[in-house]
Write a structure and sequence with these properties.
Shape: elongated
Strand content: under 5%
Order of helices and strands: HHHHHHHHH
Length: about 220
């Protein structure tokens, strides 16, 4: 079975398009000064629901009964999770453009929805993946402990990033602003965040493959 075929199965049984409707919750960010990080975090809720339903339907027992290796099962799940996260962030990026028009002076609560914000969120999402997915594949069905730890890591890591921006002299003037003149450095942060996300998610995949190989479902 090819990876494409397995991904089609994921879309039908694990992550149907209805789960992507959580991206619509980013519309709350059109409310003036609604924290951007809340809009970025709704993917966590969608993942918890999706994994819980998949476990109830014995998704992995069905999948490994198919002519497919376990590393492909892990790869398909990682690609599905990454797709949900990136759809969430893309939706928020579109909403952030309109939010900037509504509040051109930026958010009072939390960072503005600029390039640097999304770079930091990508790092936090990568940290979420590297904790949640290997923890999940340690058993193939438990999401509770690793899910809670991953969610805490997501919010705490982002909180630390934002704290540093506010503590480091001059950082907030460049990174927490909607001024196009400061877009250069913000784009650097976005690029670093994207690379970090890819590295952390790839690390999550390697760890998950090793752990899932030892699971007896």
């Amino acid at each position: 079975m090819s990876t494409i075929t397995l991904l089609r199965k994921e879309v039908r049984l694990f992550l149907p398009p209805t789960y992507l409707l959580t991206a619509a919750l980013t519309l709350f960010n059109l409310i003036p000064h609604y924290p951007m990080i809340i809009g970025a975090s709704y993917f966590i809720l969608a993942l918890f629901i999706a994994f819980s339903e998949a476990n109830a339907n014995k998704d992995h027992e069905f999948t490994i009964a198919l002519p497919v290796s376990r590393n492909r099962v892990v790869l398909a799940k990682h690609l599905s999770v990454a797709a949900l996260e990136l759809v969430q962030f893309a939706a928020l990026a579109i909403v952030a453009v309109f939010a900037a028009l509504i509040t051109p002076d930026g958010n009072v609560i939390g960072m503005d929805g600029n390039y640097a914000f999304f770079g930091l969120v990508l790092v936090s999402a990568g940290l979420f993946n590297v904790i949640f997915l290997p923890g999940y594949f340690s058993t193939g069905y438990k999401t509770g402990r690793s899910g809670v730890l991953a969610a805490i890591t997501f919010f705490v890591s982002y909180g630390i990033f934002e704290l540093l921006i506010n503590v480091i002299p001059g950082a907030s003037d460049v990174l927490d602003t909607l001024d196009p003149a400061d877009a250069g450095l913000q784009l650097v942060v976005l690029a670093i965040g994207a690379v970090a996300y890819l590295v952390l998610t790839a690390t999550s995949y390697r760890l998950s493959v090793g752990r899932f190989d030892r699971v007896n479902l």
